[in-house]
Amino acid sequence: MSNVKLAIIYYSSTGTNYQLAQMAAEGAKAAGAEVKIVKVQELAPESVIAGNPAWKAHVDATQDVPVVTHDDLTWADAIIFSIPTRFGNMPAQMKQFLDTTGGLWFQGKLANKVVSSMTSAQNPHGGQEQTILSLYTTMHHWGAIVATPGYTDPSIFAAGGNPYGTSVTVDQDGNMVENVREAVMHQAKRTVTVAEWVKKGLQG
């Protein structure tokens, strides 16, 4: 059986969710997956981005990261999303991309994808859980298989204990408060493992 193909799709304004995506890629590769990291298209006006030095610096630093396409979705056996919270919901940039997937959904090309999600916010109760759940609502419509970390590894407790997906608090200087590296890597490995089971079952 060929290796699980994992697409890590992220949106990040100042870099936190890009870092989470890189951690997830490391965990997934360790589990034997073929991984690609892609970003959703930025929608914010250049004038707004230019007014925030951290945002501008991150956009410039990641200009070579490919923008996600529908081909990435059809290629992938599994998908990990990494998104910041926006008032307890996913960012408009991610929502806009998901809203373009109706054709793939209609053709049944999104069914049985194994999916998982991570997020970040500036406060411990800044909407992390609700943000992940809002994204999973779309995944249920896809017919995807949601692979949450639950409490399947001690690293989840050390990272703050979010069973829906790893979430991290970011301080005023843009630094992650909790040490979530092991939790992210576990979540990625678990997602790949579940995708292996599904892939094997579909081919059997």
Strand content: 15-25%
Radius of gyration: 16 Å
Structural class by secondary-structure content: alpha/beta
> Considering DSSP H and I runs of 4 or more, what fraction of the residues is helical?
40-55%
Low-confidence regions: none
Could you say which overall geometry the principal axes of the C-alpha atoms support? globular
The number of distinct β-strands equals 6
Largest sheet: 6 strands, parallel
Number of helices: 9
What letter string, H or E per element, gives the SSE order? EHEHHHEHHEHEHEH
- What would the average pLDDT be, to the nearest integer? 96
The rounded distance between the terminal residues' Cα atoms is 10 Å
Protein name: NAD(P)H:quinone oxidoreductase
EC number: 1.6.5.2
Family: Belongs to the WrbA family.
GO molecular function: NAD(P)H dehydrogenase (quinone) activity
